[in-house]
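Before a colleague's protein record goes any further, I have to sign it off. What it holds is a sequence and that sequence's fold in token form. Would you go through it and say whether the fold makes sense for this chain? The record follows directly below this note.
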Amino acid sequence: MKVLRMLDRGLMKAEEHILSYSIILIAFMVVGNVLSRAIVGSGWAYTQEISRFAVTVATFMGISYAARKGRHISMSAFFDLAPYPIRKGLSILIPALTSFVLLILAFFAYEYFMSLYESKRTTTAMEMPVYFMAVVVPIGFIFGAIQFLRNMWINIKEKEVYLAQDKKDYS
């Protein structure tokens, strides 16, 4: 158990760093390109490709982080009004279904990644293999599925209703 907790903390720190640096990279690329156009008269050719990659990384790696922190989008009107037994059941069912859907999406994302890998296409400006941009998609879906399974497990194990591993329901 101690090893799993250490791995989990390491993964959380890695997610935080990846997300932080992705957002900083997007800001740097956009501002740098605007300044380059204003000062020199032409932008950086590779800016769009790097920004697209950083947005993809932030989006799909953010799935896991949002699930870990209970910050994901939720339609909670029925959930908030439901009595405890129904809310408890939903707190187990919803993460289980979400995890299942994310695993299905991971499968299709992997198939897409493999098709890009086999196509040997490259980006226009940097001539980087296109599959580099898609590799984080199945990984993000799998990490997100794992986090939702953890959310389901904490609700099975504990008496209270949890929105995430460390976040109790506010109702």
